[in-house]
Design goal:
Elements (H helix, E strand, L loop, with lengths): L17 E2 L11 E6 L11 E16 L7 H13 L1 E11 L5 H19 L6 E8 L6 H10 L8 H10 L8 E9 L2 E10 L12 E6 L5 H14 L15 E6 L15 H21 L7 E9 L2 H13 L1 H8 L5 H9 L11 E4 L2 E5 L2 E2 L4 H8 L3 E7 L5 E8 L3 H8 L4
Parallel strand pairs: 4-5, 8-9, 10-14
Antiparallel strand pairs: 1-6, 2-3, 3-4, 3-9, 6-7, 7-8, 10-15, 11-12, 11-14, 12-13
Helix pairs in contact: 1-2, 2-3, 5-6, 7-9
InterPro entries: Arg_biosynth_ArgJ (IPR002813), ArgJ-like_dom_sf (IPR016117), ArgJ_beta_C (IPR042195)
Protein name: Arginine biosynthesis bifunctional protein ArgJ
Enzyme class: transferase
Length: about 425
Amino acid sequence: MILQGDHDTNMGQELPFEAVPNGSITTPIGFVAGGLHCGLKKTDRNDLGAIVCEVPAAAAAVYTMNQIQAAPLKVTREGLGKEGRLRAVLVNSGNANACTGEAGEADAREMQEAFARTLGVPPHQVAVASTGVIGERLKMNRVRSGIAEMPVRLTGDADGAEAFCQAILTTDLVKKTVCVKLDVGGRTVHVAGAAKGSGMIHPNMATMLGFITTDANIGGEALQALLRQATDVTFNMITVDGDTSTNDMVVAMASGLAGNAELAPDHPDWSKFAAAFTHVCEVLAKAIARDGEGATKLIEACIAGAASDDDARAIAKTVIGSSLVKSAVFGADANWGRIIAAVGRAGRPINPATIDISLGPIKVLEQSRPVPFDEDEALAYLKGDTVRIEVNLNMGEGRAVGWGCDLTYDYVRINAAYRT
């Protein structure tokens, strides 16, 4: 379970929102959720889950940039394009329904239509998502029976949210969830999220399956723009193994039942809501990086002094994506040479003579020259479960933060036997 209120990148700042203890995706008004085991997984773990809104919710989504895209993405994109509203999301794990051709697309549409009939809503108001093994057809007889049973599993309490979170996991070791609340025009507004992701994670739009619920009154266009902006600085700033999945998708739904005046960029509380929404995305993104397959440590790369924020983001991604950096962190080796090498090959402007690097509180490089440091102190720091790499290019005002994890023996073990 991810700790509510993980505010590492907001240290020293007063936040315009607060964590909701034991909050979940069903905390925002109007949402229920559930999950069950229908037989897609070899174990008895849940493998079919749903989130349902009692009203047509304003909706937004971002999708993988991999050119090979699974059938559910096409079906969901087409449905959302009709009016930008959703009543439900249906998700299966254990099978990606990717590279399955026209038959796989027909299966995804059947999932959408069957759940829509069960709920009594238009099919285009149901999004579908899948995660698991690529290249195998869904066992639709099992999916059908699971869909038929789903309505009695949907609840607005913690049990329904828990069942959903368990249903979307594959190689994940823990569920990823967060919930915050804030005041918008005198009304209490909630923003919550749940996600799955552990392997085949690389920053290229979405990078996993994520689901965000809110009871804020916000239009679909504003929600879509906010989701894209938040994705750029959160979900697109993580990497586990450099592989972008065929199934990555993040869906946001807003019921509007909090009763606030409609949120838009000119609303006086827009910045507060945007901060809360982005925070939810950040907590989920960091949770995915921390739970990387075989990982033992979260790596946070903080880049400052770049020529632009875009340059800083590119450099941060290169540092956290370096297999050599990830391996050094796993081995608790203060090998700053691997870090500066990654900075230099990111393809963005730098001054090779002005770079500062620190490992947490330990400065190891100043103005591109080695700084003597205590090896034992560095070893002790690197053995912790979070390693913060700070790089200052001393060139401009560009800043960014990226998150990754160490590369361990277990990553190879897990992925060498993924299908078995």
